[in-house]
Amino acid sequence: MSHAQHTPELPANVARLDHTVVFASDRQLSAEFLAAVLGLKVGAPFGPFLPVDLGNGVTLDYYERRDEPIQGQHYAFLVPEDQFVSMIARLEALGVTYYADPSHTEPGRVNDLFGGRGAYFDDPDGHNMEIMTRPYVRP
Question: CB-based contacts of 118: which residues, under 8 Å, 6+ apart?
Protein backbone atom coordinates (compact mmCIF):
# COMPACT_ATOMS: atom_id res chain seq x y z
CA MET A 1 0.00 0.00 0.00
CA SER A 2 1.46 3.33 -1.03
CA HIS A 3 1.88 6.15 1.45
CA ALA A 4 2.46 8.74 -1.28
CA GLN A 5 0.71 12.03 -0.70
CA HIS A 6 -2.47 12.17 -2.76
CA THR A 7 -3.18 15.38 -4.65
CA PRO A 8 -6.88 15.72 -5.42
CA GLU A 9 -7.65 15.97 -9.10
CA LEU A 10 -8.91 19.35 -10.22
CA PRO A 11 -11.71 19.70 -12.72
CA ALA A 12 -10.27 20.09 -16.23
CA ASN A 13 -11.36 23.73 -16.48
CA VAL A 14 -9.81 24.96 -13.20
CA ALA A 15 -6.49 26.79 -12.86
CA ARG A 16 -5.06 27.18 -9.37
CA LEU A 17 -2.14 29.40 -8.40
CA ASP A 18 0.72 27.14 -7.33
CA HIS A 19 3.55 29.59 -6.61
CA THR A 20 4.77 33.06 -7.39
CA VAL A 21 8.12 34.80 -7.09
CA VAL A 22 8.56 37.66 -4.62
CA PHE A 23 11.61 39.80 -5.36
CA ALA A 24 13.65 40.84 -2.33
CA SER A 25 16.95 42.60 -1.71
CA ASP A 26 17.61 40.00 1.04
CA ARG A 27 15.55 36.85 0.51
CA GLN A 28 16.27 35.47 4.00
CA LEU A 29 15.23 38.69 5.76
CA SER A 30 12.03 39.09 3.74
CA ALA A 31 10.97 35.44 3.93
CA GLU A 32 11.64 35.29 7.69
CA PHE A 33 9.71 38.54 8.18
CA LEU A 34 6.56 37.34 6.45
CA ALA A 35 6.76 33.89 8.03
CA ALA A 36 7.09 35.50 11.48
CA VAL A 37 4.06 37.76 10.96
CA LEU A 38 1.86 34.98 9.56
CA GLY A 39 3.05 32.33 12.04
CA LEU A 40 4.60 30.16 9.31
CA LYS A 41 8.02 28.64 8.66
CA VAL A 42 10.52 29.33 5.90
CA GLY A 43 11.24 26.24 3.82
CA ALA A 44 14.56 24.87 2.60
CA PRO A 45 16.15 26.74 -0.31
CA PHE A 46 15.05 25.51 -3.73
CA GLY A 47 17.63 26.63 -6.27
CA PRO A 48 17.76 30.44 -6.04
CA PHE A 49 14.41 30.54 -4.20
CA LEU A 50 13.57 30.60 -0.52
CA PRO A 51 9.98 29.37 -0.11
CA VAL A 52 7.24 30.30 2.33
CA ASP A 53 4.49 27.69 2.02
CA LEU A 54 1.15 29.32 2.82
CA GLY A 55 -0.46 25.97 3.61
CA ASN A 56 -3.18 26.23 0.96
CA GLY A 57 -1.19 24.85 -1.95
CA VAL A 58 0.44 28.22 -2.77
CA THR A 59 4.09 28.99 -2.15
CA LEU A 60 5.80 32.38 -2.20
CA ASP A 61 9.29 31.87 -3.61
CA TYR A 62 11.56 34.68 -2.42
CA TYR A 63 14.21 35.53 -5.01
CA GLU A 64 17.10 37.82 -4.22
CA ARG A 65 17.64 40.70 -6.59
CA ARG A 66 20.39 43.08 -5.53
CA ASP A 67 21.26 44.65 -8.89
CA GLU A 68 18.20 46.87 -9.18
CA PRO A 69 15.52 48.44 -6.95
CA ILE A 70 12.64 46.21 -5.87
CA GLN A 71 9.34 47.26 -7.42
CA GLY A 72 6.75 47.08 -4.64
CA GLN A 73 3.82 44.72 -5.22
CA HIS A 74 0.66 43.95 -3.24
CA TYR A 75 0.09 40.59 -1.57
CA ALA A 76 -3.14 39.91 0.36
CA PHE A 77 -3.55 37.00 2.78
CA LEU A 78 -6.87 35.62 3.95
CA VAL A 79 -6.16 34.66 7.57
CA PRO A 80 -8.19 32.89 10.25
CA GLU A 81 -10.19 35.25 12.46
CA ASP A 82 -8.73 33.68 15.61
CA GLN A 83 -5.15 34.43 14.46
CA PHE A 84 -5.64 38.05 13.38
CA VAL A 85 -4.95 39.58 16.81
CA SER A 86 -1.77 37.49 17.16
CA MET A 87 -0.56 38.72 13.78
CA ILE A 88 -1.17 42.35 14.77
CA ALA A 89 0.71 41.69 18.04
CA ARG A 90 3.65 40.24 16.09
CA LEU A 91 3.73 43.33 13.86
CA GLU A 92 3.77 45.52 16.98
CA ALA A 93 6.54 43.39 18.54
CA LEU A 94 8.60 43.81 15.35
CA GLY A 95 8.04 47.59 15.46
CA VAL A 96 6.16 47.53 12.14
CA THR A 97 3.37 50.07 11.66
CA TYR A 98 0.12 48.66 10.29
CA TYR A 99 -2.65 50.64 8.67
CA ALA A 100 -6.40 50.35 8.10
CA ASP A 101 -6.06 51.44 4.47
CA PRO A 102 -3.89 50.50 1.47
CA SER A 103 -2.58 54.08 1.14
CA HIS A 104 -1.18 53.90 4.69
CA THR A 105 -2.93 57.03 5.97
CA GLU A 106 -4.55 55.43 9.06
CA PRO A 107 -1.66 54.11 11.21
CA GLY A 108 -2.27 51.76 14.13
CA ARG A 109 -5.82 50.98 13.02
CA VAL A 110 -7.54 48.01 11.39
CA ASN A 111 -10.49 48.04 9.01
CA ASP A 112 -13.80 46.17 9.16
CA LEU A 113 -14.32 45.50 5.45
CA PHE A 114 -16.97 42.93 4.52
CA GLY A 115 -17.72 42.14 8.15
CA GLY A 116 -14.17 41.05 8.93
CA ARG A 117 -10.97 42.77 9.99
CA GLY A 118 -7.98 43.77 7.93
CA ALA A 119 -4.69 45.66 8.01
CA TYR A 120 -1.90 46.67 5.65
CA PHE A 121 1.84 46.83 6.34
CA ASP A 122 5.12 47.08 4.44
CA ASP A 123 7.61 44.25 4.25
CA PRO A 124 11.37 45.04 4.33
CA ASP A 125 11.38 45.88 0.59
CA GLY A 126 8.21 47.96 0.58
CA HIS A 127 5.80 45.32 -0.70
CA ASN A 128 2.33 46.34 0.54
CA MET A 129 1.14 43.30 2.50
CA GLU A 130 -2.46 42.84 3.62
CA ILE A 131 -4.01 40.51 6.17
CA MET A 132 -7.78 40.11 6.15
CA THR A 133 -10.26 37.79 7.82
CA ARG A 134 -12.97 37.94 5.14
CA PRO A 135 -12.60 37.77 1.38
CA TYR A 136 -13.66 40.77 -0.63
CA VAL A 137 -17.22 40.66 -1.95
CA ARG A 138 -16.83 41.25 -5.66
CA PRO A 139 -19.63 42.47 -7.94
Answer: 100, 110, 111, 112, 130, 131, 132, 133, 134
